Amino acid sequence: MSIESYDSSDSPDGAASPKAALTSESNSPERVEERLQEEKRIRLKVDLRLCTIAGLLCSLNLLDSGIISSASVTSMLHDLGLDQGNRYSVSILIFTVASVCFQLPATLAVRILGPRIFFASITVSFGLITLCTAFIHTWKEMILMRVLLGVSMSGIYPGLALLISSWYRREELQLRFAFLQCGEVIVLATGGIVNFGLNHLHGQGGLKGWQWMFLIQGLVACVIGVATYWWIVDFPERSDQSFRFLSKEEAQTATARIQRDRGDVIPVPITWKEILRHFLDLKIYGFAASFFLLNLVSTSLSYFLPIILQSGMGFSTNKAILLSAPPYYYAVIPVVLSSLVSDKYRLRGPVIVFNSICLIAGFVMLGFADQVTVRYVGTYLATGAYISNWAALNSYQASNITGQWKRAVTAAAVTACNGLGGVAGSFIVRQQEAPRYLTAIWVSIGQVASNLCRLVFADL
Question: Residue 300 half-sphere exposure, CB side, CA atoms within 13 Å?
Fold first, then answer.
């Protein structure tokens, strides 16, 4: 497997070359050391300000799946008529379809409107829609809420991926995407424990347990959305306009740092011709295929893990909700460790291969072991591996795509195909196949093997 090479063949949206963009600097050792220390200090400020809020916002992608999956083992399916036929799977499917349809325009809007207005608006929208879901009465109303939720969340992940990739050098990206994933899984795991507690409020205030889940976490999302307006930062070239963040001189230093690495800090004016031209690059479709295959796994686990624990392993409703949290806490360990190794040695392919092998092993344990303990341990291995590969694949594509608008197009395309993988993944866990769920097991193993083959042949 080859060591990752950064693609320099792309023209970065008409940006000037790094040499032309930078002013002349002294090459004395003292001046170089001073500049490196200043850049390190600014990078730490970016880590503390951007990665924290990005992790929280990115967690909304998984917070939704955490709420509806926990609610699925309560009375919600019966109360709303979602237990008839494939209605529950359709509610997941329709959310993904709505999200996929709006991802490209939503990602471009991050650049046009700016991160502060864009992310604050969609986060408040997500919170309000989640809150309103607590008061629906039929499965048709649930479908409508899922469509609105998909639209509101369509730009969160690709927009954050674009913003983060704009702030860091290529050899620093995977650890930052790991921070993003850590925020996601910690919030998701904590949400599972919170859902366990909220389910005990069943009957309080005339609301059922699943209604309390949507109500409380919708309110929390609204508060985060309001705070986002002041918390999140703008793109490097406009970062001095962010609330109490960088001075004008620090913003220039941050911009020059990225310009030396990629030469694409300043985007050219947007045109549809420029946008469509980027779709001719075959690399985009290779990355999109990888995300499609990976999300088959994440959907089957994140949306259906409590159901697998209840119907497949025999745990009670509350225990199924509670036991769905620890695998996500565990996932923080492999995602951080694999990212540290990947960034230090500039390796992407071998790390993705290792995570994929662990993922196959986890599904083999989950699908074919007889002991419940071994099967439950398999959920740890599979969850940690697929979340680690999220960070690795995001870094892999961001490191090999240059140009602001091209990275926006790529982020939207891979996230859209990632969503299409969710469409397929929502139908592979079949209730009638409990307790083994062999269709989900074999499809998940097959997609990991396909992704491995695609990656190996791409590097030959």
Answer: 31
